[in-house]
Structure formats: structure tokens, C-alpha cells
Design brief:
The complex is a heterodimer of chains A (360) and B (222). Chain A is built from 13 helices and 10 strands. By secondary structure, chain A is of the alpha+beta class. The longest helix of chain A has 37 residues, at 12-48. Chain B is globular. Classes of the chains: A alpha+beta (360), B alpha/beta (222).
Amino acid sequence: MFVAVRDLRRSWRRFGLVGLVVVLVAALSTIVVGLSDGLVEQGTSGLRDLPFDHLAFEPHAQATFSRSTLDESQLRTWERHATASPLGVAFVNAAGKAGASIDIALFGVPADSFLVERADARAALAGPPGLVLSHAFEEQGVRVGDRFQMGGSGVELPVLGFTYAGSYGHVDLAFTSLATWRSINYGADPKGRFSAIALRVPGGTDVAAVDRLAGTDTLTKQAAYAGSPGYTAETQTMTMIRVFLLVISALIVGAFFTVLTLQRTRQVGVLKAMGASSGYVIRDGLVQIAVVVVAATAAGTLAGGALIAAMSGGAVPVRFSATSVTSAAVTLAVAGVIGGAVTLRRITRVEPSVALGVEA
Amino acid sequence: MSGTLALRGVRAAVPDGTGERVLLDGVDLDLRPGEITVITGRSGSGKSTLLSIAGLLRRPAIGEVLLHADPTATLSERHRTRLRGRQIGIVYQSANLIPNLTALEQLQLVAHVLGRRHGATERARGLLADLGVGGQEGSLPGKLSGGERQRVGIARALMAEPSVLLADEPTAALDPELAEQVSDLLARVTRERELATLIVTHDQAPLSQADVHLHLADGRLT
């Protein structure tokens, strides 16, 4: 790396140009990662924060609560094999007084469910019907005691309190008792129905066998995220953008170093003529590529991270996760280095005689 | 008996339309220690091809290159590269210095490539001073005059302490006065270091220092 380091120091403007492009790609990649994590957060945090590990749905519901209806007999089957709780999930428009309305992802759970960990929450759900809303609604001006008409059900509920409950399908959560949830969704004749069964499945349980007994389709918590509205489309779109950015980065670095290697053909010949092996010259080039790509990626990632921090809390759903951002930055850097390294193959084909202007 | 470097029956040709043009046709050559051999010839006569074969930069189609009487034709490319780095110094027409290295670093690079870093800086400084460019140690090639670049190029060629010095048109890019100085310098280092030196040129300046003068025409040395 004798030549590489001095080249970088004394021709920094030349490398700065490709570095700047990689900085921008890395910044964009970081923002996309932040946006992707933010969308996932908005889509699934309501499920993620609940203390279960599996969800049992009606067969063929594809993890979608609105397509799944289970009953008490299926719950009892599961209770013999795991800790189980009925769970009702529905999207409801709640109309307040003076025409103000809010959209809520309404989760109905029994007060004694293992899903309700806090004593004050249990007490609220065990008492008269009402709503425990996500803190996001408090920030929108909703107050304890405000009353809301639940969709077209005719059920009117007061706000009992607020909790850090996250959101599901980009809609902030609200909890109510399972009985109240049923009355909103099924009226006077609920027939013991609910959407799904939240489970804590002990290790070694044959989930498929219990599914056959209960007539359910059980998924892990992670797999159940796919049922969140828009989740699959959003994650696939973000993944596609990130893949494009990886390819773009690799191609840009590759194109730059291809031109650089072509310009240096005679220099490579001189190095070989003075006794340098192809390996020596390639190592030199690799160091140059690695320094440019890693430094530019780090700078771009920092810039992107700063932008995510600035955007947090605003209208754009971004979330900073050090693990995701670091992983994306490392992948981007590796793609860039590979893109550049591929061009170095050309060095092995340069004959030392080109130093004299003689074609071999 | 062969010299430090010897060519035996060397043939080289380049594609020319559907056929080929013979540049070297059974060339024999001996380079001896402390002796300057100058080969002249018109442009395109094959002088640089001859130099590249003598410098183990390319293999002849037919024939053999002997270095210290040892054949090199069957050596692997890796072995030839190592041999070239340690035994053969090359001076180029326009010095061919690496653009982003100072004069001192041009020489340190040779030591770095060959893995002989111990004492390299002192040796490099000594060489630059000996060749009259000691004051330009920290200068990049772009800041050096043509004559200074060529002196640094010669110093770089000597850095590996080779036994053979090859020079390709070393004075072609210089004015007559500088060309004379560089020729004198090549002659001095050849005598002082007992180098087997080969200069290919179409310039007259190196001829004044030649111990052996050969002319290359129609693929043959006369």
C-alpha cells in the first residue's frame, strides 16, 4: 500500500468525487433503512410489545385478523398445551364530540389475560367499559373522560387512561375488555367469538399437532407481522430500494476504478518491471478502494443518521436502529469494495513490457 | 563465454496484417560488467522489443536469455519477476516516475517492492545525492525538470543494486546539453558499479560513451 496511501493523500480531489457519490448513496441507504424500520415500527409495534410468542388464526386467514374468527372451544384446546388468551383485533373509527374522530386499532383482551401485565391496566379493563388509548392520542389532545362513539355499533366508551401501546397497521392502538370489543364487533350475539389466540408455547410443543386438534393455523410472532396491512408491500419495496442502492454503489465504485486502472496501465507496467507481483499491485489497489469506500460509507451513514434524528417525531415514520444502520452500512461497504475489486482483475493482464511501450 | 546478460538466437515478431513482421531474427548479444553497449536503429526497428526481452519483461518467440549464464526461458513468471527486480534496473525514455511519489519515495518504493526496507531511506538519499538530485528529495515528478526526472529515474534503477542496467532512449526527451550530462552519468555509474549496461537509442549522445556500438536493422545486429 506504499503507492495507494500516497495516491490518496496527494490526489484526494480525484478520489473525493467518487467518495462524494458513495457518501450520498450511503446517506440515502441509511435514510431508507430508517424509513423501513419506522414503517415496520408503525405496522407491528403493537404486536411486538405484547408478551406472546405465537398467534393462532383461523386456517387460511394468512395472519390477517379481519379474516380470522375463532371461538371458545378452540381456545380451550390450546389452553391444554400452552398459555393462551383470546384476542380481538379490529380497526374502528371512534367519533368524539364536536365531530372530532380518531382511527384506532382496537385490541380486545380479557382483564385476566397474560397479555395485560400491569395491575392498573387489569383494573381498568375489569371495571366499567372504556378505552385505554395509546399515548399518541394524548399528544393529539384526547383527555381521560372524553367519550367516543365506536363506529356504527352505537357503543359509546369513555377514555379510561393512556399507555405506551404502539401501533398496528399504521394505526395507534387502543385496548378494551374482550366483552366490550365483542359488543362493538358482534353486537348482542357475540357467540364467544374473537379474532385470534395469543400464545406462550412451551418448548417442545408440537404446534402443528395442536393446530390440527384446535382447527387453527399458528404462526410465530415474527411471521404474524406479515398480516399487518401493507407490511409485506412496504418491506419488499424498501428491500428493493436497498438492493438497488447496493448495486448502484458497486457499479459506481467499479466504474471509477476501471477508469483509474486503465489510466494507470503504464504505471502498473513500471511496478511490475521493478519486480512487483500482480498480487502486490492488486493489494495496493484494494487498500485504495477499501479506504475510499469505507470512509465514504461511514460519512454517508453518519449524515443519514443525523437526518433520521432530525426527522424523528415528525410526519415521516422513521426510526433509528443502530443494528439495522450498521448492518446496512457494512453491506454497502462490502458491495462497494467488491465492485471495485472486480475491476482489479485487469491488473493481472497488464504485461510489464507496457512500461517500455511494447505490447507483449 | 557469455556476459552478465546474454541473448542467444532471439527471435521476435509482431502481427502485421495477415502475416507477421519479424523484429528480431536470431539475435545474439553479450553484455559485460563495466561495459556500455549502445544499440542504434530507426524507429520501429525493434530496439525496445530487444530491450524488453533482455529485461525479462517479455519472452522471445525463439531463443534464450541467460542471466549470469543461467537460462531464464523455463522460469515461472513469478521467478522471472523476482529476478528482474533484483538483477535488472531499467531507465525509461521519459523516466516513467510514479506521479504521486516524491523523488525519495520513488526509490523507497523499489525497496518496498523487493522487501528490502532496512536502511532503504539512507541508501535512497545517498543515491539521489550521488546523482546530483539530493536537493529534490521531497519533490514530486511534476516539480522536477526533464534532466532531474531522468536522474531520479536512473537512481531508481540503481536502488536494487542490479548487475544489469537497461536504458530505453534515456536522452531522447532532453536537450543536447542535458543529454550529454545523462550519458556521462550512465557511463560513470556503469564503471563505478561494474554494471552491464545496454542503451538503445536513436540519439547520438550516448554513442560517445559506448564500449560496443551495434546497429539493429532488418531484425539483425551489425
